[in-house]
Amino acid sequence: MAKTIYLCGFMGCGKTTIGVKLSKMMGRSFVDMDDYIEKKHHLTIPQIFAQFGEQTFRQYETEAIRELSHQGNLVVATGGGAMTIEQNGTLAKQNGIVLFLDAPFEDCYHRIAGDSNRPNAHSRTKEELLELYQTRYPLYQKNSSYTIDASDSPLMIANRILQLYNR
């Protein structure tokens, strides 16, 4: 069974866009972890945050990583906070490869500003998001197998990941 590839990084770094391209190139199934959690719990991410809080959502992410790690041969776009938790990074690395998509804050911010489906983005100012980005950045690095420069086009980034994976 081929190892699952987990893409992590800040909100708006391109995990889903790159993940879809990469999964097609590799002939693998793609899973957006937020979508997976929404389907499993029959609630949107904003509803989970509102009804149960962020801590419960983070527990759902850990469950999702555990469940997906047993399937193998996937490309998974994790949530923006999933790999800030050491347990999640450890779990994902035991059963796959974790790639940190390192995109500049301004690029991420431009993509997420005003997105009501992102509770952590929607409720914060640009300055607060920058602070969150700076807090999460070293955690992404620590809990990943590799850091990938995510400032190119999604296709170029997917090609770079494919070359790395095939080494």
Secondary structure: elements and pairs:
Blueprint: E1 4-8, H1 15-26, E2 29-32, H2 33-41, H3 45-52, H4 54-69, E3 74-77, H5 86-95, E4 96-102, H6 105-112, H7 119-122, H8 126-142, E5 146-149, H9 154-166
Parallel strand pairs: 1-3, 1-4, 2-3, 4-5
Helix pairs in contact: 1-9, 2-4, 3-4, 4-5
What does this protein look like?
The chain has 167 residues and is an alpha/beta fold. The protein is built from nine helices and five strands. The protein has a five-stranded parallel β-sheet with strand order 2-3-1-4-5, with helices on both faces. The chain has a single domain (4-166), classed as Rossmann fold (3-Layer(aba) Sandwich). The longest helix is centred in the last third of the chain and has 17 residues, at 126-142. α1 (15-26) packs across α9 and α4 (54-69) packs parallel to α5 (86-95). The two termini are 17 Å apart.
Specify the number of helices.
9
Taken as a percent bin, the fraction of beta residues is 5-15%
Number of folding domains?
A: 1
Order of helices and strands: EHEHHHEHEHHHEH
Structural class: alpha/beta
Assign the CATH topology: Rossmann fold
| Number of extended strands | 5
CATH architecture: 3-Layer(aba) Sandwich
CATH class: Alpha Beta
State the fourth-level CATH superfamily: P-loop containing nucleotide triphosphate hydrolases
Overall mean pLDDT: 93
Q: Runs with pLDDT <50, length 5+?
A: none
Oligomer: single chain
Helix content: 55-70%
Binding site for Mg(2+): 16
Subunit structure: Monomer.
Protein name: Shikimate kinase
GO molecular function, one term: kinase activity
